[in-house]
Design brief:
Largest sheet: 2 strands, antiparallel
Distance between the termini: 20 Å
Strand order of the largest sheet: 1-2
Radius of gyration: 22 Å
Strand content: under 5%
Structural class: mainly alpha
Number of strands: 2
Order of helices and strands: HEEHHHHHHHHHHHHH
Length: 266
């Protein structure tokens, strides 16, 4: 634990106060310049866009994930495992390969445009790749299971007697959902949102492949500092800021609604 988690964190934290050498090396002298530099409007804009895209991806996963998780949790037991396998099976394939599969589908000469052109639905191919929308599709597809599985765990434990009692008292289906189902499954909702939102901030290969050079997230910025610009101190400072931001979101969750059940779901 100390070797593989604590020691790298300490190393990154110390590196964030160092100075980039003339030829890409690291000079270990204490400075706050890397943190001050991050508050340049250019980098703050990248951070803001990353948060916005992560939030929208989380909403997409929640909108589609909640009904799916509910259907799976309420399906007959003999079909439940099959439906869960539909979520788990994609994990058996590398996420990079699945991203390339989306590129084959969405590119100008891809499967979707080819079929629509042959059916006469469109006269010119759509530009569906290398934009922010394509990045969000890739992120939502990759992280969708992280939303569904906590929701399924929360909905599956829902006491059916409470739903029947609400119906017997005259509550309509939407009232039962709003006042019974949703509040009782809120730990799963919050846990799923955290499990989607936080990894979205750090993923970099999906924006690279599906967004081209048009979409830059904070994960791409950090990767570029380490591998391209060879500015390890600034990349470390950006990493520390991202970790602090992540901790803030987790603390907000713990203080607002993160009870013991929510932590069990996480």
């Amino acid at each position: 634990m100390i070797l593989f988690f604590v020691f790298p964190l300490i190393f990154i934290f110390m590196m964030s106060f160092a100075v980039r050498g003339l030829y890409g090396g690291v000079e270990y002298s204490f400075t706050l310049e890397n943190y001050v530099r991050f508050f340049d409007p250019l980098y703050l804009n990248i951070l803001w866009e990353s948060i916005l895209i992560a939030a929208l991806t989380t909403v997409i996963c929640l909108v589609f994930g909640y009904p799916f998780a509910y259907i799976v949790a309420r399906a007959p037991r003999k079909y439940r495992n099959i439906l869960l396998m539909l979520i788990v099976v994609p994990f058996w394939t590398n996420s990079l390969i699945r991203t390339y599969a989306w590129i084959v589908l969405l590119r100008t000469e891809g499967v979707i445009n080819t079929v629509l052109l042959q059916l006469g639905v469109i006269s010119e191919p759509f530009e569906m790749l290398y934009n922010t929308g394509a990045v969000m599709v890739g992120l939502a597809y990759t992280l969708f299971p992280f939303m569904v599985l906590p929701l399924y765990a929360s909905i599956e434990k829902l006491d059916q007697n409470l739903l029947e009692a609400a119906s017997d008292l005259g509550a309509k289906p939407w009232q039962t959902f709003a006042k019974v189902t949703l509040p009782l499954t809120m730990p799963g909702v919050v846990a799923g949102c955290l499990l989607v939102f936080i990894p979205t901030l750090g993923l970099f290969f999906i924006p690279d492949l599906m967004g081209g050079s048009k979409t830059m997230l904070i994960g791409n910025l950090i990767r570029n500092q380490f591998l391209t610009a060879r500015d390890w101190p600034f990349g470390s400072a950006a990493s520390v800021i991202l970790m602090i931001l992540t901790l803030i979101f987790v603390l907000i969750y713990l203080r607002s609604g993160g009870d013991k059940k929510g932590m069990e779901v996480l």
